């Protein structure tokens, strides 16, 4: 929808945002900029001591304070308003375009036969989700959520001779994926805050990073699993079972 909006227009929005930021800093004695910087500092302090109770308290209070401070900036409000206006304009333009109708030739049909399958998981914002403890038929996983834990056990299913896909986009919570020893994996994870453990590899207190691992025989294996996950804050563990 935004592909016809030129880079020049985006640059002007960015320039105006920077000007508003400078105006707020100069004429409002820092405005919400100084509280944002202070909150960001305490977010960092809390994250460095996140394994302790006081660190968790400082981290979450400072994070909430920083978010509200950022939203109080004139520049941020302007960019949000500009994005909404651009979206509405482009949506209105798209409604005026003619609908493309493809002709149907004799002996052909636009209706390809499909079989509807029930997914392993439904999208949920706050509940924990786990695979069944009894054997189940494998289906690719593609879910997102806000809060809660996710656990996928691949030992109770049969992975087809193909690439199985697990895609999870989540806000706050932990993810655990159990993989049989004979299955090769590709693991790509991105997070803002959290810990990552993939088999024997361990990464602690990650901040805004992506991690990619792949087993040695993944490219040539007949049975393999591609894991793509993203978390705002939480731990993920991939282990053999």
TrEMBL record:
Q: Where are the transmembrane segments?
A: 12-45, 57-88
Question: What InterPro entries does its record include?
Answer: Cell_wall_LiaF, LiaF-like_C, LiaF_C
UniProt KW keywords:
Membrane, Transmembrane, Transmembrane helix
Q: Which residues form the Cell wall-active antibiotics response LiaF-like C-terminal domain?
A: 125-238
The source's superkingdom equals: Bacteria
Q: Does the keyword Transmembrane helix apply?
A: yes
| Entries under Pfam families matching the protein | LiaF-like_C (PF09922)
Q: Is the keyword Transmembrane in the record? A: yes
The UniProt entry, under NCBIfam families, shows: LiaF_C_term
Its recorded name reads: Cell wall-active antibiotics response protein LiaF
């Amino acid at each position: 929808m935004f592909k016809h909006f030129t880079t020049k227009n985006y640059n002007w929005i960015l320039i105006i945002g920077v000007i508003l930021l400078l105006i707020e800093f100069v004429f409002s004695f820092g405005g919400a900029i100084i509280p944002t910087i202070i909150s960001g500092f305490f977010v960092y302090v809390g994250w460095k001591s996140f394994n302790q109770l006081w660190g968790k308290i400082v981290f979450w209070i400072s994070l909430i304070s920083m978010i509200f401070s950022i939203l109080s900036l004139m520049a941020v409000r302007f960019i949000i308003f500009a994005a909404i206006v651009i979206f509405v304009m482009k949506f209105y333009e798209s409604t005026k375009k003619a609908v493309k109708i493809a002709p149907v030739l004799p002996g052909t049909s636009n209706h390809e036969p499909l079989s509807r399958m029930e997914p392993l998981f439904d999208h949920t914002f706050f509940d924990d989700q786990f695979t069944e403890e009894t054997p189940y038929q494998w289906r690719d996983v593609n879910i997102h959520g806000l809060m809660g834990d996710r656990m996928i056990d691949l030992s109770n299913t049969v992975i087809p001779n193909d690439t199985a896909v697990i895609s999870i986009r989540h806000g706050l919570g932990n993810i655990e994926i159990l993989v049989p020893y004979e299955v090769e994996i590709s693991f790509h994870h991105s997070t803002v805050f959290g810990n990552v453990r993939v088999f024997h590899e361990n990464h602690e207190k990650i901040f805004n990073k992506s991690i990619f691992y792949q087993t040695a025989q993944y490219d040539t294996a007949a049975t393999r699993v591609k894991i793509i996950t993203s978390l705002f804050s939480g731990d993920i563990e991939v282990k053999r079972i």
